[in-house]
Structure formats: structure tokens, C-alpha cells
Amino acid sequence: MLGRTTTQFSHVKPGDTHFKTDGLRDFFLYCDLGIAEATHGKVIAHLVKANMAPEKGTGWHRHEADFQIVIMVKGWAKFMYEDKETLVSAGDCVHQRPGIRHYLFDYSPDMEYLEIVSPADFKSIDVAPVCDVPSPAPWK
Which of 25, 42, 104, 116 has its CB surrounded by the most CB atoms within 10 Å? Predict the structure, then answer.
């Protein structure tokens, strides 16, 4: 069974890969952890951290994905999941069910989270607003 796997072993250490600005959102930095390559696109895992203060947030959207979790490593972020405001703090794990409409609208300057999604080339689709969204707090 183990000899028939279609994925590869992967071991990424700090310094092997770096945070870059070429991700989904320009106000975040992204650090690829090598999982998409090792799984031939079945799964992506990357670290995401704040790069700029929130102004408009992500806007209402959903993902075309089979699986998605966010594990907050540092700081905090505030999301709207459908019509429910949710504070996600360091140590929290959120499973975003497929197709859930959401909006990340505020986060701390030290926010950093691990995101794991399948498939690796998931799509982000803008959707109509679900409800009003609170304004982000200005960074001091």
C-alpha cells in the first residue's frame, strides 16, 4: 500500500521558503509549505500573515474547495461566516465547510494563520453581501 502512494515526502524548515506577496490578497503575505507540490495539487498548505492594515477586508466570497481549515498561529482575525461574526484567536481551528459565504474584515498586525485547502488550485468566488459587516479597528 505505501509503495503505491501518489504523493511525495516533504520536509520544509524555516528559511527553506519565504513569505511572498504573490498570493490571493495583496494585504497578506504567503509562505508556501511545499504540500501542493508533494501532493501533485491535491492539497495546499501555506502560512498567511498580515502585510497591511485592513481597509476593506476580503469582501464577501466563497471557495470552490472540498476541504478548508484555518489554524490561527498568532494574533486574531474577525470573520463573518454567513451572518455570524466570529473572532478567531491564536490556537483556534476553523473548518470552513465547502461553499460557506464569508468575509475576513479585521485582523491584528501580528495575525498569522496556517491554511490547508483541497484542492490546491481552489477558486475564490465573489458573492452578494449576506449582511452588513463591521468596520475594522484602525491599527495604532
Answer: 104
